[in-house]
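Exercise 7. Given the encoded structure of a 150-residue chain, write a plausible sequence.
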């Protein structure tokens, strides 16, 4: 059985946030949701995670409706439960109690067994001067690489 690589990423996450701790979580999905994700029709660019009643949920993640799904199709922007260990949930809850901290999805991938997993990170938002510093460092590195190449 050949599994193709999922390339569903949140590219802006590392630019917008300081990432602290990264977790791998399973996602509770229905049948048509998993079929759409495997065909690559999902987006986590606007998604974020919340902690509610002892569970972690991903909100605002868009999964396009499955074209062959008939009336059993799912809602594109429904909240989806993340499957984590109790220790991980307790760490996340403790982290989110501090103002300015958030939990963001970084990427979705297929595990070795074929399950869809999501990589989430505890993050703190960057200020504008931090973003400018990152861009400056990136440009400097690019210039150094060009100079070394010549």
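Solution.
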């Amino acid at each position: 059985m050949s599994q193709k690589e999922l390339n569903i990423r949140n590219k802006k996450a590392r630019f917008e946030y300081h990432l602290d701790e990264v977790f791998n979580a399973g996602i509770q999905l229905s049948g048509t949701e998993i079929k759409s994700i495997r065909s690559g029709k999902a987006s986590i660019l606007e998604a974020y995670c919340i902690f509610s009643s002892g569970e972690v949920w991903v909100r605002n993640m868009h999964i396009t409706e499955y074209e062959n799904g008939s009336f059993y199709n799912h809602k594109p922007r429904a909240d989806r439960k993340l499957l984590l260990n109790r220790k991980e949930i307790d760490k996340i809850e403790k982290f989110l109690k501090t103002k300015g901290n958030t939990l963001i999805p970084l990427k979705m991938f297929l595990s070795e067994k074929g399950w869809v997993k999501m990589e989430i990170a505890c993050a703190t938002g960057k200020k504008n001067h931090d973003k400018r510093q990152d861009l400056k460092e990136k440009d400097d590195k690019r210039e150094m690489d060009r100079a070394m190449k010549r």
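Remark. The domain at 8-149 is CATH 2.40.280.10 (Small Protein B; Chain: A;). Students should compare their own answers with the one above.
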